[in-house]
Design goal:
Layout lengths: L16 H4 L15 H21 L7 H17 L43 E3 L22 H13 L9 E3 L11 E5 L10 H10 L3 E5 L3 H15 L6 E2 L24 H5 L13 E6 L5 E7 L3 H6 L5 H25 L1
Parallel strand pairs: 1-2, 1-3, 3-4, 4-7
Antiparallel strand pairs: 5-6, 6-7
């Protein structure tokens, strides 16, 4: 299969959100079942089982000279490595009304019929700490990167393209929030400076070993990998991350993603400058995982790639939508969610 052309059922209504805003697809893809009613019945049964299962468990000192040397070196690195990311502060965001904070275009909304309130898929973003700096954002990114547009757009595409019923607004939770165990899928972005608290470590382990699923996304290079690896080993000291083979069902369960398709998705600014690897030591995307006690994938780590930008920025540039959002970020994201909800 050609790298530049996926099966026709991967096409996301043929246009990014900015072009198709307010219009339903005339021929929505029902990739998860043969019919909407039948698929929802099966999926809702799966949701209830997973919800029930989850709910059951229930300074160094520097001289002035060294400081000047450090700042000069940092300035040189910044000058040589342009940063095309758009940094936004999470201060002042209203997490109860994420649509009020959208910055990349308005995502269509929808209402779920009565009776489906507890049977919907919800995009849950994890708010995490970074070292000793609490929940503040480090320069260029953090837990709120691409929020809320990435969350809302993926939820919309999932609702539009599949038989799933989906919460249109999503949630932001901390790992220690008692509500965590109500939701079987969570998302952590830019964990290059992530630091779990001692309280969070056993909670996250219990969540993942009792039916929860974690997707980690958008961090680049060896330094950020080393930080995340150290933190996840605190959660799973008895398990090693492994490279997920492209033959794994997570790459084929809804949209077939052939092995010759490079799944690396850069931020839009890099893509528009012809760059797919955002760091010199991040030339190849890696997809690594951790299995639960029954050998089922419960963590997928997307390293050296930025699926969140593919979701967030789909309406900003037609080329970016066609080459990265439509071919890579959305199919992979939908596959991961479907796999998490059915295994």
């Amino acid at each position: 299969m050609s790298e530049n052309k996926l099966p026709s059922r991967v096409i996301l209504s043929g246009a990014p959100l900015r072009e198709a805003k307010g219009a339903e697809s005339k021929d929505p893809v029902l990739a998860l079942s043969g019919s909407r009613s039948g698929g929802r019945t099966v999926l809702h049964r799966i949701f209830r089982l997973r919800f029930a299962r989850l709910s059951a468990c229930a300074p160094l000192r520097m001289t002035r000279v060294w400081m000047l040397i450090f700042l000069a070196a940092a300035a040189l690195v910044c000058a040589q490595t342009p940063d095309f990311r758009r940094s936004r502060s999470s201060r002042g965001m209203d997490f109860s009304n994420p649509r009020g904070d959208q910055h990349s275009g308005d995502t269509p909304t929808w209402e779920n019929p009565p009776g489906f309130e507890k049977d919907v898929f919800t995009f849950v973003r994890i708010r995490y700490g970074s070292g000793g700096r609490g929940y503040g954002r480090r320069s260029g990114g953090g837990w709120a990167t691409d929020y809320p547009d990435a969350d809302l757009n993926l939820a919309w595409r999932l609702q539009q393209m599949t038989s799933m019923k989906v919460d249109p607004n999503g949630k932001v939770l901390e790992i220690t929030d008692p509500e965590l165990f109500r939701y079987p899928w969570i998302y952590i972005v830019e964990p290059g400076a992530l630091a779990f608290s001692d309280e969070e470590v056993p909670i996250l382990r219990r969540y993942l070993l009792n039916g929860g699923f974690l997707m980690v996304d958008d961090f680049w290079g060896e330094r950020e990998w080393d930080n995340f690896h150290d933190e996840i080993k605190r959660v799973f000291p008895d398990r090693d991350l492994f490279d997920i083979p492209r033959s794994h069902p997570v790459f084929h369960c809804v949209f077939p993603l052939p092995e010759d398709l490079n799944l690396q998705c850069p931020a839009i600014g890099y893509a528009m400058n012809g760059i797919t690897a955002e760091r010199p030591d991040a030339q190849e995307a890696h997809f690594r995982g951790i299995n639960d006690d029954k050998g089922r994938l419960c963590v997928i780590v997307c390293h050296n790639t930025d699926n969140g930008d593919g979701w967030e920025r789909e309406g900003e540039d037609h080329h970016y939508f066609k080459e990265f959002s439509e071919k890579k970020a959305y199919p992979l994201g939908i596959n991961i969610i479907f796999y998490a909800m059915t295994h």
